[in-house]
Amino acid sequence: MEVSINRVFEHLGHQYHLHCEDLGEEEAAFEVRVIKQGGILWQKRISYEDLKSKAAGPGLLRMAVRTKMNSTVQTVEAAIAAGRIT
């Protein structure tokens, strides 16, 4: 399926590269990383096994995974803004 998101988030004069990468349907998970100045500050693997059973077809699964990724990125941006990831 291969869905990914790359975004730069600026906060207090720092740039954070947020990267979400689908690990494929066999893994049924994606990884999200926060990178600052070339180093990984935070990384987490998030399952989407629950979405596989709910989605009726690959197109709907892709949309559901992208929605979950976007939600995760927004949560990570909020964590950076709150000082939980620096």
Task: Give the secondary structure arrangement, pairings included.
Layout (H helix, E strand, L loop, with lengths): L3 E8 L2 E9 L6 E8 L2 E9 L1 H6 L3 H24 L5
Antiparallel strand pairs: 1-2, 2-3, 3-4
Q: Could you give a short description of this structure?
A:
The protein is of the alpha+beta class and 86 residues long.
Care to describe what's here?
The chain has a 4-stranded antiparallel β-sheet with strand order 1-2-3-4, covered by helices on one side. It starts with a strand and ends in a 5-residue tail after the last helix. The protein is built from 2 helices and 4 strands; from the N terminus they run ββββαα. With 86 residues, it is α+β, with helices and mostly antiparallel strands. The chain has helices at residues 49-54, 58-81, and strands at residues 4-11, 14-22, 29-36, 39-47. The protein has one domain (4-81). The protein is 35% helix and 40% strand.
Return the structural class: alpha+beta
Overall mean confidence score, pLDDT? 94
From the spread of the alpha carbons, the general shape counts as elongated
Number of domains: 1
Q: Whole-Å distance between the termini?
A: 32 Å
The sequence of SSEs as H and E is EEEEHH
Approximate helicity band = 25-40%
| Beta fraction | 35-45%
Please give the largest β-sheet: 4 strands, antiparallel
In spatial order, strands of the major sheet run 1-2-3-4
Flag low-confidence runs. none
Q: Which radius of gyration do the C-alpha atoms yield?
A: 14 Å
* Count of separate DSSP helical elements: 2
Q: What's the count of strands?
A: 4
